[in-house]
Amino acid sequence: MPSKAQPKLRLRNVSKEYVAPRTGQRTLAVSDFTLDVRAGEFLCIVGPSGCGKSTVLNMIAGLDQPTGGDIEMDGHHVRGPGAERGVMFQDYALFPWKSVRDNVGFGLRHGTPGAGLTAAERNDRVNHFVNMVGLAGAEAKFPHQLSGGMKQRVALARLLANGPDVLLMDEPLGALDAQTRMVLQVELLRIWGEAAEEGDRKTVVFITHGIDEAVFLADRVVVMSSHPGRVSAVIDIDIPRPRRESIRSEPRFGQLTDEIWSLIRDEAYQAIA
Ligand SMILES: Nc1ncnc2c1ncn2[C@@H]1O[C@H](COP(=O)(O)OP(=O)(O)OP(=O)(O)O)[C@@H](O)[C@H]1O
Questions:
Q1: 18 CB less than 6 Å from ligand 1?
Q2: Which of 40, 51, 117, 266 could form an SS bridge with 47, CB 3.0 to 4.6 Å?
Q3: Is the CB of 51 under 6 A from ligand 1?
Q4: Where would I find the ABC transporter domain in this sequence (predicted)?
């Protein structure tokens, strides 16, 4: 049983070096990355393009292996993917030939999350999360009939239906227009359980290019620098919850976004030069 003081995730001096198979060229994408993520925390990672954000997330997910250091969840080494760590990407990753209902229920029918559940229990769980993300009435639709925002709601419902303890989100709102994005940020906080006790919330690691998105969502923002990717700062977002739309125009919101932008501005310009 994990102790209360134990972090949910612990990354210790994690590094990742890619070696190109044909040329043997080496890229040190991440180096000496050390971070604890508390249980129930909403943690955002920002940094200039190519600084290693996705590499870090993929290693936590177990989709990629560190070449140095160690990653633990609840005190156990992460050795590969696991149902307790759910991943969501920018590109929806829905099955185009399956309905909303079948997309959401896919992991329950074909993976370990549904083990031991009866068909009725699986259906109940699918309905619960379809309702939670605001897709009631759209269960029989197919992805091509949905807007981008609705597709990401489906992907979120599928992620939640699988019951992971940790949500790993790689720019999940990155493909959406600005308005849909702001609406879904609010929805995401509601679904995460912003109004609930901290102990009842999932642990979230959320990658974004949007500094304002990170400040709106996060308890803490990890700022990465690049070449190689490292933690350059960890900023506490001391804006009380629940967070309403109106906080975006408050002075503290602007101060925090300015502070984070000042930390990555030079590298961000270099990354696109
Ligand atoms: N499979 C791979 N093989 C070789 N190099 C890779 C591989 N994946 C990523 N890299 C390199 O590792 C570095 C970090 O990439 P990564 O995608 O993690 O950064 P990122 O911060 O998520 O980027 P972005 O903000 O553009 O999404 C980059 O230099 C990238 O080119």
A1: yes
A2: 51
A3: yes
A4: 9-251
Give the distance (Å) from ligand 1 centre to CA of residue 66. Answer: 14
Question: Order of strands, edge to edge, in the sheet holding 26-37?
Answer: 26-37, 9-19, 68-73, 76-77
Helix axes 148-161, 119-132, angle to 10 degrees: 140
**CB of 57 closer than 6 angstroms to any ligand 1 atom:** no
Please provide the distance, in angstroms rounded to a whole number, between the alpha carbons at the two ends of the chain. Answer: 49
**Residues 132-187: pLDDT tens digits?**
888 899 999 999 999 888 999 999 999 998 889 999 999 999 888 898 899 989 98
Q: CATH homologous superfamily for 1-26+37-84+165-273?
A: P-loop containing nucleotide triphosphate hydrolases (3.40.50.300)
Lowest mean pLDDT among 2-11, 92-101, 160-169, 237-246: 2-11
Instruction: Write the ipTM.
Output: 0.97
Q: Whose CA is nearest to atom 7 of ligand 1?
A: 18
**Is residue 13 within 6 Å of ligand 1 at its C-beta?**
no
Going from N- to C-terminal start, the domains of the chain cover 1-26+37-84+165-273, 95-164
